[in-house]
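Lecture 7 notes: from sequence to structure.
We start with the chain below.
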Amino acid sequence: MENLDFKYHPEVNDDYLCPDIMVVCDRKQPKGGSYSGVPRFIAETLSPSTAKRDKAEKMAIYEASGVEEYWIVSPQGAVEIYYLENGKYVLNQSYLLQDDEEEDDYNAKTVISLKAFPHIRMNLEDIFEKTAHPYTEGLFNSIPDISARTDRLVPIQGLMPDPTN
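Predicted structure tokens for the same chain:
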């Protein structure tokens, strides 16, 4: 789905957020352009105008809502992966892309997967694929079930058929 809002406390008011990426499993909860259940995964891609909100306000809302896994992705090559443990986010993994094969800490081929969906896998370098939209395109194209949010689809390790065929 494209542009699905997350209503994080619909029983109280109509407040919502627009995550960059959200994985939902309850097909009954999306109503119109919004979702009022608990997403299994959310990722936010930082930009200069959203970084503070994504790392503080939105993170606190997702945590309080019970979102199991939250990724914060920086276009400069950083990924922070938080898992919900006992109602609080705990930083589980942190990566800083090193794509120079000559460097000792080269990690571009490091495989990352979603905790609840281990079959959704991507290389660290795929998240930061250089495209026309530096804040979001690489990440959107790296997650097969959500790739429809962009103009082109990228198959990941055989999980999706090649859209060009």
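Points to note: The two ends are 22 Å apart (CA to CA). The beta strands are 5-6, 21-23, 30-31, 34-35, 41-45, 69-74, 78-85, 88-96, 111-113, 121-123.
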